[in-house]
């Protein structure tokens, strides 16, 4: 089953949305065998200058279980840990470096074999702090800009030489159907569904986050503070 | 020539594989009680399964992603999990019903108590799922299922008043002794029997299993748009037979032997022998399809290697799920529960679970990113939207109707 060319490679494009185009997709190895799902993504925040970037695919129950629960995922996560308190790495998901991703289409294709591939997520280097995309999605947005209301629905990434830089937040009221893709404009749906979803998501906006540092995000309260110089754009691609 | 042969084979297996235990039981019940007044419901259901099977087949060809990959991608992990649980319950229930159906059919042949046959059937189903090649399984069981055409022959032999049957069908002439609520309940059940969700899991995953390419799209469409409606005619023939024989007597159909009885009356022993072969093939084929569907949906949600296109050793979790599902189904049947009752529950459950899988398919079939030039046209979208509304209505109405009518009694 070689579906490598079933779709154009998103990595060749200008931008991709992490939740819409990457999260929950099937991961496939070099022989076309299935590996896992993209259960979550690792985001690295750098202390010195570099913009934040998505750095690893996270997978396994330790990544998936917290996403099942409320935004912070604490309740189910605690239950999950309590089912195996003797394991030191119970809470550490399995990880695949994004360096191995060669094609991103309807699936995520790797350049390695699946055998012995998945290992625990390593601790961060000095000057780097790691978080998960699942924590960021659904966070409340605080901003003085009148058009930025609601929650973080997605983050827009820019693939640059094997790195996935975090460039924008997709911000809007958290209404159902934002994973359907109607709101990002690359879509011609059946009229009825498109009208309903477009109406629900008419307040959705793209906010630049090049200047966001980890300190602007209150991880415990679940709030992102966007600074004064945030620029606001239309959310559709090109 | 070879292409023509494979086209014919595909259409024949689509006809033979269309009918399963739900269609057999519900069509006979409805025929006996409502004559052919629900013929149009069958027609609407068959068109519906054509529309969605074609769409999911096309999505599988273009994106190489089967249904449950898309469910999780488009609805997210939480809604996707709810969907998985609901679909698994319905599919497992159908699996139980199909295995029970095979056992009942074999019991009719051998006069051995079906409870003794159930474990054997479970073992055989599992062996086929584990060992048989996907295409071999599909073709052999599909072709044997064609034996059910004997219902059409029997109906012709029984010599009903054709004008009368046509009139009942096109005017939806409900018999006076039935209420509209029971009519609605059986309409929903028929709809659920024609459009079971597992057919879509199976069809889209089967497309990936058989490695369909863009050039196979026309073959796939021929299978769906010729094979399924002809299979639907078999459903109508079953209802027609029951209506002609049982209608005047006021007898309710409550067992598989009663479903076969009109054929015996019309064609004698030979007919009975043929129809029993058809029963075994149709239910066994559907048992394999529903069994695989449990593994497909779990594997596709969690991202495990699934499918028979790799060796069992390469998809161990998938095959473990199949073993567990078969054990579970056999265990449930060994409690002595009536498979006909399970069948009735499974078709109503199907009606409830339908929108969960159809909605994501409809959405993705419109995504240029996945579909390229094979995106839904205006006709597919118009039909898709009409059916989306219909399946939502059926899903909402199913459980209240089940309670109000006391399962249609």
TrEMBL record, chain A:
Domain of life of the organism encoding this protein: Bacteria
Can you say what this protein is called?
Uncharacterized protein
Could you tell me which species this protein originates from?
Nocardioides marmorisolisilvae
Automatic annotation (TrEMBL), chain B:
A GO molecular function term, named singly, is: cadmium ion transmembrane transporter activity
On the tree of life, the source organism's domain of life is: Bacteria
InterPro entries from the entry?
NRAMP_fam (IPR001046)
Annotated TM spans: 38-61, 81-109, 115-132, 139-159, 183-203, 224-246, 266-288, 318-341, 347-365, 386-407
Q: How does it sit in the bilayer?
A: Multi-pass membrane protein
One cellular component (GO) term of this entry? plasma membrane
**PANTHER family registered for this protein in UniProt:** NATURAL RESISTANCE-ASSOCIATED MACROPHAGE PROTEIN 2, SOLUTE CARRIER PROTEIN FAMILY 11 MEMBER
Instruction: Report what the protein is called.
Output: Divalent metal cation transporter
